[in-house]
């Protein structure tokens, strides 16, 4: 690999960096050794303080639990009752419930509280039940009782990390004994860094983790509460609990640092060697691209004095790349045309950069009669088709409709280009996919695009009347105002009002009839067929027949064959009016009972993946009518009611077990995925299930 002045500079720079880093490592090693002992001591002290605070918390809760039990009226009644009478047993039951509450509320501290009296016959009331004194076995080798009375003090238990505390409290004229077992912090019992001892002030007994520390603890057993003592090379902390009759002594051995010195020096030497090696490798690595470049652009035997001469030549290449980038940006500029035409189509103010007001525009509104899953694919295909035609611009207007804008110098060319492009694209479509397109007239200037799109969409609205045509133009729909007019939107409003048994249904019906009164006989006949079909559709949506609902048959064939369209239309109105009246009477009788049955069904199946169609099928209704009826009767919609029911159940289960798996909980409540469950939970509760569980855990503490 060829080398020049640049290589020598890199070597000198990285040599200086390596020397500086080596000096820094030496200084850091010295500082680390000097501060290690203090740092280790602080770490041990902090860790021991954590165990100490845990122990303090446990003993504090024990003291509070005993005080609450002493203040309990049932404890006082039990203490003053004679053994065997009614108050004695009834109060014993209440004390059992109180001990259960104490241990249940503070179960994460792992302690138990039991109560008994001085009478040898007295029961021991625990959170697990009521036992006789001689049935208890707490300690492996110490005597707990004398003549049926527990001896106050601290005892080891069968569990190595637990102690038994026996204390007496005076309640009125009686003395009660409280037996409390509590777990020592795990680090104090099994950790290598700390040790502990508990001094029983009443029996003058020292319980320690080891015999050596027991001897040390004997020297400071009367130390002041909260004091810190250094003895026998150990640092000790003392906590005294006079009301419990115990002192707790914690200790740790300060670390010895001579091994750290050896390790630190060794590590420093190794790091210095590594730094030198890394700097050398880095210098070679950084120079490698330059060296390879020189190898490629020079001939064997050529002398290279300055590598930057090669860099200058490469800069010239970059200039060429910059020019190529400018061309790419020009292509990107073409994409901004999409944004411009979207603004014009929606009537949003937009200042075009070209200020071209002389071009002619034609707009097409396009829809596909296909499943929702295929719409995105079809519109993407149409977009790709238009990219090869600079005169044509594609804009997706909404989920179901897109617009095509054709721009040309003349009106004839603008319209011809659009028609040819649409027909060519339709010819390439799968035979199972049906495309409908409404094409506007042609106008000059950008300001006309919004109007042209509105007219194209209006022309497209006639697609149901021209089921055999793909492309609709102004010529196709000319004179449509003289034909029967019953738009799909008005049909949907009429069906919706009929299903709701609303009086507005007859108003909508009369309005449509009045608007279509002045028609030719043929068109009037066609309109009567439309209204008969509407009535038939109404009974189909109700999943019933005129015989079942009105108790009389309807001869639809005779209505179709009626020679007087107006009479047929009025007959249909009477049928619909009778149906609305009958259903309103039935709804008034059944509404109060139906909503209850719907809610009972949801309450029984909310853990399943039920949907509105399931509820509708259960009550023999159409989903649309079922949704409308449920909303009117319960002032809520099906989805909100179901989700609230599931989320309320989720909250109860998290409160019961905050550690429950969120994914399993969501699936057990009928949600399709954990993400759906988290999203719905956050919507109704305001926080995620995980944060809700953490909040429950904090409240329990």
Protein described:
57% of the residues lie in helices and 15% in strands. The protein is of the alpha+beta class. A five-stranded antiparallel beta sheet has the order 10-9-13-12-11, sandwiched between helices. A five-stranded mixed beta sheet has the order 15-16-14-17-18, with helices on both faces. Strands 1-8-7-6 form a four-stranded antiparallel beta sheet. A hairpin with a 2-residue loop joins strand 2 and strand 3. Helix 2 crosses helix 3, helix 12 packs antiparallel against helix 13 and helix 18 packs across helix 19. The model has no long low-confidence stretch (mean pLDDT 81).
Short overview:
The protein has 701 residues and is of the alpha+beta class. Helix content is 57%, strand content 15%.
SSE class: alpha+beta
Strand content: 15-25%
Number of helices: 23
**Quaternary form:** single chain
- Shape category: flat
Features:
701 residues; alpha+beta; 18 strands; 15% strand
Task: Tell me the layout of helices and strands.
Layout: H1 5-71, H2 73-79, H3 86-105, E1 111-117, E2 124-126, E3 129-131, E4 145-146, E5 149-150, E6 153-156, E7 162-171, E8 174-183, H4 186-190, E9 194-200, E10 205-208, H5 211-218, E11 228-231, E12 234-241, E13 246-252, H6 258-297, H7 308-346, E14 360-369, H8 372-387, E15 392-396, E16 401-408, H9 411-427, E17 434-444, H10 449-460, E18 471-472, H11 474-477, H12 488-499, H13 504-515, H14 521-542, H15 546-550, H16 556-561, H17 565-605, H18 612-618, H19 623-634, H20 638-656, H21 662-668, H22 674-685, H23 689-700
Parallel strand pairs: 17-18
Antiparallel strand pairs: 1-8, 2-3, 4-5, 6-7, 7-8, 9-10, 9-13, 11-12, 12-13, 14-16, 14-17, 15-16
